[in-house]
Amino acid sequence: MLTFTLRRLILSVPTLLFISFIIFGLLQLAPGDPMAQVPLTVPPEVKQKMREALGLGAPWYVQYYKWLIQFFWIEPKVFIDYLTNSSYLLGWLPDTNFYKDELRVISWQTRSPVMDIVMQRMPQTLWVVGLSYVVGIVIAIPIGIYSAYKHYSVFDQAGTFITMVGFSIPPFFTGPLLIVIFSVYLGWLPSIYDTTHVVNDWESFKVQFFQMIMPVMVLALQTTAQISRYMRGAMLDNLNQDYVRTARAKGLREGVVVMVHVLRNSMIPVVTVIALGMPAIFGGAIITENVFKVNGIGQLLLTALFANDLPMVMTLTFIFAILIVLFNLIADVLYGLLDPRIRYD
Q1: C-alpha–C-alpha distance, residues 25 and 260, integer Å
Q2: How confident is the model at residue 57 (pLDDT cuts 50, 70, 90)?
Q3: How far apart are CA 145 and CA 259, in angstroms?
Q4: Which of 9, 64, 78, 335 has the fewest beta carbons closer than 10 A?
Q5: Where are the alpha helices (DSSP H) in the chain?
Q6: 299 pLDDT higher than 70
Q7: Picking from 8-17, 35-44, 88-97, 268-277, which range would have the lowest pLDDT averaged per residue?
Q8: pLDDT at residue 17 above 70?
Q9: For residue 113, which phi and psi values (nearest 5 degrees)?
Q10: Are 225 and 167 in contact (CB under 8 A)?
Q11: What's the rounded Cα separation, in Å, for the pair 141 and 151?
């Protein structure tokens, strides 16, 4: 199994390098100049120095190297301070200030290092997107299993109707609808996500919980609708197989037949949907974050697009590409765990 995982991991490296080169090349051809908004009274030599400060005076291969290396360079002080939040422990670490001037890619819009801004926004997105995906999977799999086992029942018909509605309605409609119902009319939930809120006691935790309900519900709705339908279809295919009838003929309990034998074989196609759905849910979060004012990477991407901030757009686009390749790798590994035939091919 280790060889199988390492082989998939090694194959993902040239794939990511190729994707990064395509993203960099295409966006380098896009129109846009960070000096376009500089007043005409600024002398040309000052503009040239400003361009060099943003890293635009270097050849394209130097810019590509700087842009690519920022994803993999971790400063010890910044990393440990991020984990421990205690700067008094960091006096013994070596100085890495040379990296700030030499290798950091600067945002055209904020004039700040791109990865610093991304790391500040990432926790908010991970909280909302990660929790919504977990909630969606936890709800979808039992619904799909029971709908398949009791197919054409009232529960199955109702689940089919609700999931079809949930899958058809886009987040830019569901989000404002929930705001109107739960914030405007009922007044139960806050309509705006406060990203500056700090959880340090039970009362602050309740505030955080209530402000996360609506954005998580919007994203989890589509996840639940999609995965439950795939789960139902895969279970129906396996419930009619010969090995199921053989297991029942041997006297195995119905719960063991369904939850052990049928479920494991049914999870193989569903793993693909779950793995590839994670990058898609990040895409849906772009809309949801703007609806609920979540200060995450989705909102950051739209802001960068409107501001023509190409370094930020390139970085966030490559992050989405990394997510796609990473979760494809996770899907391959899970295939090997669920089906030994794939593992040994």
Answers
A1: 49
A2: low
A3: 9
A4: 9
A5: 2-28, 44-53, 60-69, 76-84, 98-102, 114-125, 131-149, 154-168, 171-178, 202-239, 242-249, 254-256, 263-291, 297-307, 310-338, 340-343
A6: yes
A7: 88-97
A8: yes
A9: -60, 135
A10: yes
A11: 15
**Furthest-apart CA pair in the chain: how many Å?**
88
Q: What is the pLDDT of residues 215-230, one digit of tens each?
A: 888 888 888 888 888 8
End-to-end CA distance of the chain: 11
Surface-to-core class of residue 168, CB atoms within 10 Å of its CB (0-12 exposed, 13-18 middle, 19+ buried): exposed
Does residue 32 surpass a pLDDT of 80?
Answer: no
Question: Coil, strand or helix: which one is 124?
Answer: helix
Structural tokens at position 215: 């954005």
Phi/psi class of residue 15: alpha, beta or left (left: φ > 0; alpha: ψ in -120 to 50)?
alpha
pLDDT tens-digit map of 71-123: 665 444 444 444 444 433 333 333 444 344 455 677 777 777 787 788 888 87
Nearest to 312 by CA among 23, 10, 92: 23
Q: What is the percentage of the chain residues whose pLDDT exceeds 70? A: 79
Report which of 291, 302, 299 is spatially closest to residue 174, judged by C-alpha positions.
Answer: 291
Q: Which residues contact 119 (CB under 8 A, 6 or more apart)?
A: 82
User: Among residues 333, 230, 233, which one has the least CA distance to residue 273?
Assistant: 230
